[in-house]
Amino acid sequence: MIQTVTGRITPEELGVCAAHEHLTIDLSRMKKDPDTCLDDPDGMVKELIAFREAGGESMVEVTNDGMGRNTPLLADLSRETGVKIIASTGFYKDPYLPEFTAGWGAKQFASHIVSEIRTGIDGVFPGVIGEVGTSHEEMKPIEEQLLRGAGMAAIETGLPVTTHTTLGTLAREQIDLFDQIGVPMSQVIIGHQDLNTDFLSVLYAVQAGAYVAFDTIGKTNYRPDEDRLDSLLELLDQGFGSQVLLSADLTRKSHWKKYGGPGYGLVLEGFVPRLLSAGLTNEEIRNLFVDNPASAFSIKESRMSSILRTLSIEEAKDMQFRLVETMSRHFNGETIFQGGDRGVHPKFKRPKTTVQVESMLADFFQSQSAALVRGSGTGAIRTILAALLNPGDTIFVHDAPMYTTTKETFRMLGFHAVVVDFHDTEKLKTVLRNQEAQLFYIQHARQQPEDTYDLERVIQTVREVSPNLPIVTDDNYCSLKVPAIGVELGADYSTFSGFKVLGPEGIGVIVGKREGIDVVHERNYSGGGQVQGPEALDLMRMMTFAPVSLAVQNEQVEALHKQLNDGVIPEVRAAYMTNAQSKNVIIELKAPVAKRVIERSGVHGAAVYPVGAESRYEILPMIYRVSGSFIASHPELADYGLRINPMKSHAQHILDILRRALDDVQEE
Predict the structure, then answer these.
(1) In 3-state terms, what secondary structure has residue 188?
(2) What is the Cα gyration radius of the chain?
(3) I need a surface site. Which of 42, 289, 336, 412 has the fewest CB within 10 A?
(4) 642 vs 624: CA distance, rounded Å
(5) What average pLDDT does this structure show over 222-226?
(6) DSSP secondary structure string, 81-133?
(7) Are 521 and 514 spatial neighbours (Cβ–Cβ below 8 Å)?
(8) Cβ distance 569 to 655 under 8 Å?
(9) So what's the pLDDT on residue 115?
(10) What are the residues facing 371 on neighbouring strands?
(11) Do the Cβ atoms of 355 and 533 come closer than 8 Å?
């Protein structure tokens, strides 16, 4: 996927891309030149429309902190013009670094960049790290720390990192630095290489596996375009055409059409004819403008890929508002205050109020139907699987330790599992073609720390190979916390526990196709087995509080993770954000004292075991054992590992409890 200012898109949606541009930039403070300040939103709209008319469809905007970045404006521009825009995180180079970065080391740069990638910049998520740069023929100490931090953030997040090389110099040194710290070269874009007159160093970069950007096209005061073309053709002749990106790097008012300049369509309108005259085919030109950027700016697998993207506070508020709007379509000003009915209604065979809530849930999750059932999330899974399958049927599942209650469901209902690694798309396709099964089952939350598969991509793969195979997703710990659950991404059915979205105990939710849910309703004919109207209303009302409450909780998870990795608790060897069921922090201690730390944490005000993991009762921060499925894949965590969920607490309170608990253990 590719992160744009208005959301994630597939690589195929990126289209014709300008790989290195500036729409909003202000370098006038340092350059003492008002021409280097782009601050005209109306002008930006007109310039983007002209770019689109020239054939442009997307743009990578590499103005970062200290250069005049304005991410909310970029989002507005994208929505108004239809041009897809990728925003950046990071810092430029000396002397343009913000004052607050003075004295920073690589870890501080990395932490800041990762934080912006995870939580957004004024509500907008960046899709590239950069442009991070070096001076002319010199890598200053602060620039080295910046590049190291940017590389560390690239490893952590999977985002590409794009660089600035002053007049094309130090490409080789930048490659060596990134290689030294282990950045995959497929995530590295070395900028301004059309200005590099040392072709061997350009060749060094592409031979290492990096992309090179010919991104100052048209700036003939630096180098004639004829020379740029010669270097580009040489790269293509040597077989590196798939590693070249093109752009113009406009940074001045005088570059805009409004002021008599060529505008952002310069490369498409002025350089493409040169490429055609030089003998390039339309396919080769498409590679440079479409295929190469789609590959370069795709988010790669990373340590952070195992972390499901949760809602920001603003996104959570929007989800809350959408929930209320949906309720208004199914309840009026009078019925919303009623207590709800009980019993087997003659028409619906269950309480009428329950039917209303089910209709609201189906509407909200954009599905055909919904059912409220007994047994929480586990009951929902068992009920829909029993409705769709028969004993002895086979189910495709991921190659990972299965959640305990799910494993018991398979045993109870007599299902057989065909295990396949969801990360390996080609292997998954082969298994789908060659082995028979009656259903495809996906757990949305992670089953083990190494899991990084993308739910939507797995669903799309199944649909491509076996379009009629039913897909069921277990969305426990994900519903109302992530942007979309399985049924919203193409699955047939999603299940989750109402208890985990602040509802009452014992209610499971199934949303999806009418045919399967009709079977659920038909089989659940007992009055005692119904979710009664008052319970259904309680669930619906409490769900409105869940998105924002859980988003605040996730915010504190990230704050806690950052502080622990900054070394505030010396006894902690490492801290990881995971989706071990809910999003939380797993701590690996330096000593095997996890069980004692949990006990002492309880004395100092932490909860040490769950009620329902994010239920309405869980207010205190929770410091408890690592989940069974994670211990199954990492047995050492039984003695060294702690799992921490802030619940309704803030990060500092948790750190205070941990400090006191560890002090107690050390005094024993």
Answers:
(1) strand
(2) 27
(3) 42
(4) 6
(5) 96
(6) H--EEE-EESB--TTSS-GGGTT--HHHHHHHHHHHHHH-BTTB---EEEEEE
(7) no
(8) yes
(9) 82
(10) 510
(11) no
H or E segment to which residue 216 belongs = none
pLDDT beyond 70 at 630:
no
pLDDT tens by residue, 137-149: 999 999 999 999 9
- The CATH code that applies to domain 313-544 is 3.40.640.10
- Cα three-residue angle 385-387-391, rounded to 5 degrees: 65
* Residue 629: per-residue pLDDT: 64
For the chain, the first-to-last Cα distance in angstroms comes to: 51
Compare 197 and 628 and report the one with higher pLDDT: 197
Q: Give the C-alpha separation, 253 to 36, whole Å.
A: 7
Mean pLDDT of 109-116: 88
The single residue listed with the structure tokens 């003659």 is 346
Cα-Cα-Cα-Cα dihedral sign, residues 153, 156, 159, 160: positive
pLDDT value at position 614? 81
Instruction: Write down the CATH number for the domain with range 2-306.
Output: 3.20.20.140
The CA distance from 494 to 475, in Å, is 6
Write out the two tokens for 510.
């199934």
Phi-psi region of 279 (alpha: psi -120 to 50; beta: other; left: phi over 0): left
Answer whether residue 359 shows pLDDT above 90: yes
Contacts of 495 (CB under 8 A, 6+ apart): 377, 380, 381, 384, 472, 473, 474, 475, 476, 508, 509, 510
Query: Which of 59, 91, 80, 88 is closest to 248 using CA atoms?
Result: 59
Q: Are 493 and 472 in contact (CB under 8 A)?
A: yes
Beta strands in 118-262 (DSSP E): 128-134, 161-165, 188-190, 211-214, 244-246
> What is the pLDDT averaged over residues 580-587?
78
Confidence at residue 306, expressed as pLDDT on a 0 to 100 scale: 62
Neighbours of 612 (CB within 10 A): 18
Q: For residue 146, which of 176, 186, 200, 109 has the smallest C-alpha distance?
A: 109
- By the 8 A CB rule, do 453 and 423 touch? yes
Contact between 475 and 494 under an 8 Å Cβ cutoff? The reply is yes
For 151-174, what is each residue's pLDDT tens digit? Answer: 989 988 889 999 999 999 999 999
Q: How far is CA 507 from CA 336, 373, 386, 504, 611, in A?
A: 20, 6, 17, 7, 14
pLDDT given for residue 74 in this prediction: 97
Give residue 344's identity as a one-letter amino acid code: V
CA distances from 602 to 97, 458, 520, 641 (A): 45, 40, 42, 16
Domain definitions of the chain by residue range: 2-306, 313-544, 548-667
* Token pair listed for 102: 């003075």
Instruction: Give the integer Cα–Cα distance in Å for 163 and 155.
Output: 15
Is CATH 3.90.1150.130 correct for 548-667? yes
> 206-220 b/e with 16+ CB inside 10 Å = b?
bebebbbbbbbbbbe
- How many other CB atoms sit within 10 Å of the CB of residue 628? 12
Cβ-proximal residues to 377 (8 Å cutoff; 6+ apart), any chain? 474, 476, 495, 496, 497, 499, 500, 508
Predicted confidence at residue 331, as pLDDT, reads 96
8 Å CB contact between 414 and 392: yes
The C-alpha atoms of residue 393 and residue 620 are separated, in whole angstroms, by 43
Name the packing angle between helices 352-364 and 533-543 (round to 10°): 30
Q: What is the pLDDT of residue 581?
A: 61
Contacts of 109 (CB under 8 A, 6+ apart): 90, 91, 101, 145, 146, 148, 149, 150, 152, 153
Residues 76-86: pLDDT tens digits? 999 999 999 99
